[in-house]
Amino acid sequence: xxxxxxxxxxxxxxxxxxxxxxxxxxxxxxxxxxxxxxxxxxxxxxxxxxxxxxxxxxxxxxxxxxxxxxxxxxxxxxxxxxxxxxxxxxxxxxxxxxxxxxxxxxxxxxxxxx
Length: 114
What we know:
Helices cover 33% and strands 28% of the residues. It has three helices and six strands; from the N terminus they run αββββαββα. The protein has a six-stranded antiparallel β-sheet with strand order 1-2-3-4-6-5. β2 and β3 form a beta hairpin. It is globular and about 30 Å long.
């Protein structure tokens, strides 16, 4: 399978997961496929994973407790304490992070910074 097919397959699987959440929409921001709730971005596909915005305490705990989660730095930009980068082997595996995927839009919709 080519890289383009892998990326489009991963995007389709992530779309299927995130776009069924209440109030979530998707659009392209520069080269990133991004997901929004209440016109605020809460997730985006970048590199070999997905970035999610979460409360700082949750993001910090995840970065130290799981080896597939790191600070989110799209395109080498400085990381934010509220964003994590989750790497999975395939798009279908992102379903294993459904709890985080559901928490992120709620956090963003509430105004973040908890």
